Every structure is written in structure tokens, then in C-alpha cells.
Amino acid sequence: MISIDLDRLNDMIQQLTLMEQVWLLEQLAHHIRKQAAHQQVFESQLEAMASDPQIQRELREIEAEFVAADFDGLSD
Questions:
Q1: Cα-Cα end-to-end distance for the chain
Q2: Low pLDDT (below 70) residues in the chain
Q3: How far apart are CA 9 and CA 20, in angstroms?
Q4: Model pLDDT for residues 34-46, shown as the tens digit of each residue
Q5: Residue 66 DSSP code
Q6: Where does residue 3 fall: left (phi above 0), alpha (psi -120 to 50 degrees), or beta otherwise?
Q7: CA–CA gap between residue 57 and residue 65 (Å, rounded)
Q8: Is 42 left (phi over 0), alpha (psi -120 to 50) or beta?
Q9: Residue 14 backbone dihedrals phi, psi, to 5 degrees
Q10: Separation between Cα atoms, residue 9 and residue 16, nearest integer Å
């Protein structure tokens, strides 16, 4: 379902000239490309962390410290 704000925004866009709509579309495309690039960098950093042996070792140590909590009867 489209929110009222998006519906109003759509109405406002339709009132713009073609040139203004093209400018707005270019701005949106630029913004979306920039966000996608940031997302790719973030995901690459997460992948690097996940494959880092030191990170993996630290996670195993943390898991070992909390293994007793698995038997506390509070899980499903």
C-alpha cells in the first residue's frame, strides 16, 4: 500500500515541468547509485570480517564462554 505522503509526492511530481522531472529523476538515480555503492562496500567489509581468522577465533572463544547458557532451560 502506498502511503499518503508518497501519494502526495507523486501528485507534486506530476505538477513539475518535464525538465524538472528529468532533473529529479537524475538526482534520484544518483542517490540510489551512491547508496548501492555504500551497501556493496559494507557487505564487502562484512565478508572480509567473516573470513578473518582472528575474528573467527574470537567468535569461537565467545561461543565457548556462553556454552553453559545453552543448557539453562530458557530456550524454546
A1: 35
A2: 1, 75-76
A3: 14
A4: 999 999 999 999 9
A5: T
A6: beta
A7: 12
A8: alpha
A9: -65, -20
A10: 11
**CB-based contacts of 13, cutoff 8 Å, min separation 6:** 21, 24
Cell of 4: 499518503
Q: Which three cell numbers stand for residue 2?
A: 502506498
pTM of structure: 0.56
Q: What are phi and psi of 35, to 5 degrees?
A: -65, -40
- The pLDDT value recorded for residue 39 is 95
pLDDT for the residue numbered 10: 94
pLDDT of residue 7: 93
Collapsing DSSP states into helix, strand and coil, what is residue 51?
A: helix
Q: Sign of torsion, CA 67 72 74 76? A: positive
Which candidate, 26, 34, 28, places its Cα nearest to that of 9? Answer: 28
